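Before a computer can learn anything about folding, someone has to put a protein's shape into writing. The outcome of that step, for a single protein, is printed below:
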Amino acid sequence: MNSFSYKANALLTFSLTILALMCAMASLTDHFNYSLPTATVQILNVNRF
């Protein structure tokens, strides 16, 4: 029969593996995203009080 420490170790290892996979997927999506935002600002009127 497994002790509590073996079960906790398995759960911690599994959760860290899932976290590492999520970080790798987020890194890959950032690597392949090529966004080129552009903005044009024009001042039409300045109101002075």
